[in-house]
UniProtKB/TrEMBL annotation:
Residues 28-170 form the Lactate/malate dehydrogenase N-terminal domain. It is found in: Peroxisome. Transmembrane segments: none annotated. Keywords: Glyoxylate bypass, NAD, Oxidoreductase, Peroxisome, Tricarboxylic acid cycle. Its EC number is 1.1.1.37. The keyword Nucleotide-binding does not apply. Residues 172-335 form the Lactate/malate dehydrogenase C-terminal domain. Homodimer. NCBIfam families: MDH_euk_gproteo. This is Malate dehydrogenase. Its main location: other. Belongs to the LDH/MDH superfamily. MDH type 1 family.
Amino acid sequence: AHFVPAASASSVLELDPCSAGTDPARFKVAVLGAAGGIGQPLALLLKSHPLIKELSLYDVVGTEGVGADLSHIDTDAVVTSHVGADSLSAALYGSHLVIIPAGVPRKPGMTRDDLFNINAGIVKTLAEGIAKFCPTAWVNIISNPVNSTVPIAAEVFKRAGTYDPRRLLGVTKLDVVRANAFVAQALGRPAADVSVPVVGGHAGITILPLLSQAQPRANLPAAQLQALTERIQDAGTEVVKAKAGKGSATLSMAYAAAKFAESCLSAMAGRAGVVECAYVESHLTDLAFFASQLRLGPDGVQDFLPLGVLSDLEASNFSKLKTELQSSIQKGIDFVQKGP
Ligand code: NAI
């Protein structure tokens, strides 16, 4: 006799005539860099996601252990483990969403740009695999420097003829998560009630929190708004310093990436009104890639929400970030077009 769960997701759904017979778990999600500091807790969070049918874990080392461990959790996503370059095709084949936290993290004293030399090549290789084995998947890029690694992936996809800018998203959700947490503390409000858009890029001064558009309104003195802005911009470095050589943000990043993946999967599944901040190809400013609030639809980015009116502080910070962001974008493009 087979064990039949008392109320499996599908039996509950069959009570709803609108979705009778549909299986909610329909997506294959691949995590590349799955055995790492971010990859492991991210895979743990995704293992319980009802929309995920297969959780495909890929790394150059250590994937089997992570996969065996996660596969004992009593949720329905099937875990598959893939180790080494030869298994990249199997890891990616049929994926709907590919999340990339592969690469090296910062150590104290390093900027995200210092990671470029190693991570640029890793992201290029993985993007080439995606173009070959799952060219229509959505791609969430976490590997730093995001300001350059997203343009790198875009160039790879353009070369392969598979580029759809709607489906290539640099993950800046951690900046939003941090901004929400810090503003909630400052206002003494529950974090769940707070929402702060963060635009620009994902490194130092290119991170531009729009505190003037925080919900609920953050009526704080100018000096406190300035201090909050700087803390959000330097929050990654705060963690790098506290970990003292043992890496950068992993747990908060995994949380942010899982939330972001959930938004992507919900939009893919047809949920309307999904809005997230992400770093994508953009025409909102004169920068070719820019993070801003986006409405996601079944095919990826559907609309760009306007930047809105910036405060004087934000307008001044916006003009300061342009040169750095532009050069990071160009660095990524040149890496693919001209070679390392
Ligand atoms: P980690 O070193 O703990 O893990 C990275 C994993 O990538 C390792 O398991 C490693 O074996 C794997 N890897 C290396 N080369 C690979 C390849 N060619 N293919 C597949 N996997 C490969 O690093 P951690 O802490 O997980 O960070 C990963 C990346 O995420 C770093 O670049 C870091 O800067 C970035 N990051 C991004 C954030 C964001 O907000 N977007 C926040 C925090 C970190």
